[in-house]
Specification:
heterodimer, A: 182 residues, alpha+beta, two-stranded antiparallel ribbon, 7 strands, B: 644 residues, Aldehyde Ferredoxin Oxidoreductase,  A, domain 1, Aldehyde Ferredoxin Oxidoreductase Protein, subunit A, domain 2, Aldehyde Ferredoxin Oxidoreductase Protein, subunit A, domain 3, 22 strands, 39% helix
Chain lengths: 182, 644
Amino acid sequence: MKARQATKIIKEIKVDINKCTGCRACEMACSAFHSKPKYSSINPARSRIRVVVDELNDEYVPIRAGDYTVAECTGRHTYAIDGKDYSECSFCGAVCPSRDFFFEPDSGLPLKCDMCETVPALDQPWCVKVCTADSLTYVEREVPRDEKPQPTRDQLEIGLEFLINEYGMEAILENLNRKSKR
Amino acid sequence: MRYAETGFDLEIDLTRGSIERVASPLDMTEMYLGGQGAAAKILWDRVSPGTDPFSPDNLLIFSAGILHATPVPGVNRTAVNTISPQTNLMAHSLFGGFFGPELKHAGYDKIIIKGKAPDLVYLYIHNDKVEIRDATHLRGVGSTETGDRLKKELKDPRVQVAAIGLAGENRVYMASIEHNHASAARGVGVIMGDKRLKAIAVRGTKDINIAHPAELFQMSQELHHKIDSSGCGDWMAYDEDDSFHHNHFAWGNARTRLKNYWSKELQDRWTSWKYDHMDRQTGCYNCPKECRNVIKWPGKPRFAYKCYGKDTYHMAAFLELDFSYEILGVAQEYGLDSYSTPQVIAFALELLEAGILTDKDFPGMPEDSRGRFFYIMEKIVRREGIGDILADSVSHAAIRIGNGAEAYDHNTTKKFEQLPIKLGKVNPAYFLMIATGEKMSITQIEGSFPQDPLPTPEQRQAFVDKWEAAPDEKFKQYFLNWEKRADITNQVASEITEWNEAMHYVDDATGLCGFVSSFRGQFGGDVAYHMNNIPDCIRLATGIPFDKDKLWKTAQRIRTLVRAINVRRGLRRKDERPPEDHWAVRDEEAEQKLLSDYYDYKGWNHDAIPTRQTLEKLDLGYVADDLEERGILMVEDGVSAKTA
């Protein structure tokens, strides 16, 4: 019988920019959930999701804090969607020195979205829960986990030889002995 | 620790160029909440009744509501208060959007502005950094464009800007203050312009603390769901059948009813105009409703409207919706109130037709209605020629023009343009609200008790059965027994007026939007906020104990203080008259009896002044002292409400 392939859950928040009303309830709820104790203070500046708004150009784009980066991009794309030009930054979640999003206002430390992971787990992250316009939707996808390749005989021998040379046969045997008894 | 509030105000003196951060006492919050309530107390304390609205001593106050920047949804209306040159009374204005919450996150509940800058300036607030900056490069720049330019200049797209356009700069009485597709109307832009303050840009990154966090968050999520799933909000954002306004409200200079105007064909055409040019519908801070339709009309600035705001221009001009779409973006950039401005223009055109004004007053004016409206609007915002007179609003313009023009000023109360509603029989509650209200527009006074009875007892019973908003069982009885619109006793009309008003005074002190609260209950009764749940929101957010009775009393206290401010500035019974043609069938004697009965009910004397006894019951003894000292309230008035 073939062993069941290992899988992992990918959590995604899908954004429909045409549905965003710019109300920023997502920012409010995120900051409340991540305050300590929970919900004790409100501050969109601490939110890990921000709605980038440009009313004059009708741009409303919620973005989520991703990884911290020390440097700005060297060059950027401009995307034309439905006749409107969006800078690459409009969609980028990197916590980057080019803008003051996603930094703790007091300490300046970077923030990162954690999908509201908590015990017991929420059914959805808070930003999605409060987005009644359905601009944000939560999707969980199960994808196969990449199997680690088994080491070949050659690799095993080379490795063992290295360890014997490094630590001596006696130490290796003693260690193996102990491990095999466990 | 202070909860829900920052506990600090910004005091700006534009004459001296000084900026101070001043702590506000907690007991003031408990007595007057925030928003208009707190602003009324400041105006009472600091603007003496002799102060000319254009004096540097007049204050312009931007105040966040007590619930701004808490998780409570649908709280985003910032109050703007000052003394209005149009009415010479306390001006009351509100705007939605994001300004109030941002101000609180910057660390302030209010901005109190006095003095006048030598030339155009703007105020930049970024947390503890507050600066008065030169704005001469923004002279004549449109109101929303000013916001856009400041965001770029300050390199911060998250700055929230409230700005005036050319109308405010030129001290047009109908000037508004614009912010993020929301307008502060009813005569406050003129004072911002008079103080030479082009804009306020605010950015805040501080915490607002909540007294009972988990409970309030839970309650807020339930309310969020309720607002989203119930009918409250502006149903006109979705419902394309606008026969209500077009068939029932008056066109032109509030004269002409077109009772069968609306048709299916018209609705289809207008719906296409809307959806062919609408980018999206947007909402205000932390509100699940999307009441604002954002329109991009070819060749005109992008703008947003809600509710009846899309009808005022084309109805005044006897045109169709495309005209409103054409003019609203331009009017928004100029910063003009879309309720009063079209009436002023229609009034001017009526005077021209009557021969009181002549072609010489309108050199080069186009022949068509469309062209004329644009022409007169340009004259008004620049105060050129006849525009300089019209810029002072209908009542003042009528006096300045003279020669019989006063007769055409037929739709104002307390010198303020009213909604163009002309009906048959008096609804006594409406008579009281229009006559005695001090928020100047009926939309800011009505709203909790239904406008009309339901036809059958079964329908009325069904309505009452699910009526959570009623603060007292007696209102359910009144509604059950109500059969004909005009058939309400003076006592009941007084009680309805009091409830309707109280809800607005609560909203305007907490920052709640009337569309999910005070204004909305009259249409179907199902509304998210009411006297029965707002006390919990305040209590959980601030930690200050509040229940229904205390909130009711607070609303009456604020309402009475506003009355006292205006009484001190000269408001009396004689000013409390709805437009003479508001209803076709009138009975002066019965109406005056109604007014007297209402004053008795409120504990005011028959000249519309609250008595000492009433004031003391509302902890406003200091107001009674002042009114007595000035000889406005006779000492014996304290004995009985009926002595005057």
